[in-house]
Amino acid sequence: MFRVGEWYSFLVTKVIDVPGNGNHYVLKHVSGEKLLLPAKYYVKYNFSVNSIIRCKVDKINCTGQVFIEPEHPVYKVGNSYDFKVKKIEPWLHDQALKLVVTDVFDNSLEVVIPEGNLKAQQKSVHLKVVDIKKGLPVISSTVIWNCSQIFKKGEKLELFLHGTANIQGEEYYILIAKSNCLAMLKVKHYLHYSFKPSTPIFAIYFGIDANGLLKVNPEHPYYKEGELYSFQISGFELEFNNNSGSSKVAVVFDKYGMKCGVKIENEKHYRIGDSIMCRVLGFKKGRPLLDIAPQQ
Asked: Could you tell me if residue 149 is inside a domain?
């Protein structure tokens, strides 16, 4: 019944201790559906039993588990706010700085900003809230990065690995194209690509993100878009989609052990251990997007 991206109201019925996972709020929807919310991320939200809170559905996984994010008491996604400057650090790229700020609850937040956009002894900075995760605002510079080169969507770019950087607890690869244009990719999605500083990284350009950084899809080290490959079915799961509801997918693992899902029309025609031919439609977060190839 829940849809990803939609907001719902819940009644906080009680707080329970989940062994090994700490205290959780028990939330009840008007439909009778109950969800658990980890309390440790939202202590400063001051939730109380019998109060009504609004939550957005962030994700529904393959088993139907619903992940929610409560409405922040101060910050709204898409709006910009002044944050107190805590620390300014040099970054691995000479045209950027790593800025540490504090939010209204004194949580430390990190963001990378273009060099030259902070005055000496500046006490606060205007930043945009692009998301809320586990009670923390995800922030972005309101200053767009300068990239003098204009690229066309679908164009193949040559980039080089400049290094890695930890931002807000997440490790990123920093890639540089000509004219010093930057791209950032999460290491956890591309570790198996084995990027090396001295080796060119070819990637397809598909746009500019909210910060003015390049959005790119690196060439996969093994799979090619449009080609056919054999995969072995390791299981079956339900996939949830806002438009089509739930659908059955066959679970397969690619050459690097990355889990992928392939939509199937009729589970009865397939068994665990079967080999299926799939066409690579594209790539997302380092994994091939697959479709079962029609039998000849």
From this structure: no
The count of structural domains within the chain is: 4
For residues 189 and 172, give the distance between their C-alpha atoms in angstroms, rounded to a whole number. 10
Question: Which residue range is the domain that position 39 belongs to?
Answer: 7-70
Four-point Cα dihedral 237, 230, 272, 270, nearest 10: 80
Q: What is the C-alpha to C-alpha distance for residues 13 and 174, in angstroms, rounded to an integer?
A: 45
pTM of this structure: 0.73
- Single out the residue in 218, 249, 270 at which a domain terminates: 218
Q: What is the pLDDT of residues 209-225, one digit of tens each?
A: 766 788 899 999 999 99
Indicate whether 61 belongs to any domain: yes
* Residue numbers of the chain with a pLDDT score lower than 50: 242-244
Beta-carbon contacts of 49 under 8 Å, excluding residues fewer than 6 positions away, are 12, 13, 14, 15
CATH number of the domain encompassing residue 114: 2.40.50
Evaluate whether 278 touches 262 at the Cβ level (below 8 Å). yes
Residue 206 lies in a domain: yes
Model confidence pLDDT, tens digit, residues 237-258: 876 554 445 578 899 999 999 9
- Phi, psi dihedrals of residue 123, rounded to the nearest 5°: -90, -30
